[in-house]
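<goal> How does this chain fold?
<sample>
Here is the protein in question

***
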Amino acid sequence: MQYREHYRTSRYLGPILNTFPKVFISESNKVKIGLGVMDALYYKTRQIKPRLFVAVDFNQVYINTCRQVKWWEDDYPYNLEDKYMIVFNIPEEFHNSYWEFLKGRYSRMYTKDQLTKLKIPAISGGKLNPIYNVLTRHPLALTYLQSKIEDRYGTQTVSDDPDEYDLPPRIGQEVFNSKGNEEFIKSICELKNI
C-alpha cells in the first residue's frame, strides 16, 4: 500500500491492513492513503478503542470496497474539499498491538507469528528490514534509532541500552485533527506531544 505519510502508524500498525481481504488490499494499492490512530474530532463523540483511520481522496469504488470489510466501522467526509475518512476496527488479536503502539513500546506489539502473518519480513529488498528490527528489538536497530535521533535532535547520542529502537509516536504525526486538541488527546491516551 502507498502511504501519504511515513509516520509510525504506517510503519507499525499499517501492516494490520495486510490481514484484510485481498480485494481490499488490491483496491488499496491503487490509492494513496494517510493512516492515523485516531481523529480527535471523531473521539470527542465516541469512546476510544483500537481503530485505524484511513484518509483518502474521495473515491466511491474504494469507499464501497472498504464498506464490505468486516472491520469497517464508519466513513465520513474529512474536509470540505475532496478528502474522505474511513474508520476500521482493529481485529481483536491486534488490540494489544494498538495499546502498546500508543505507549511507544514497539517491541511488545507483536509475537513472531503475528509478524509473519502481517508480512513484516526480517529481510526486505536484500537488506535487513529496520521495521522488523525495531519490532523485535534487534540490536542492529540501534543505528536506525541513531538516525531518527539525529534527524529530530541533531545528535546521535543514544543510551547504550535504550528501551525501544524508535522514537515514541507523536500526537501531531499520528492523529488527524490534532491541532488545538492536544490536551484532549493526552487525556484519553498516552501519546506524547513532543
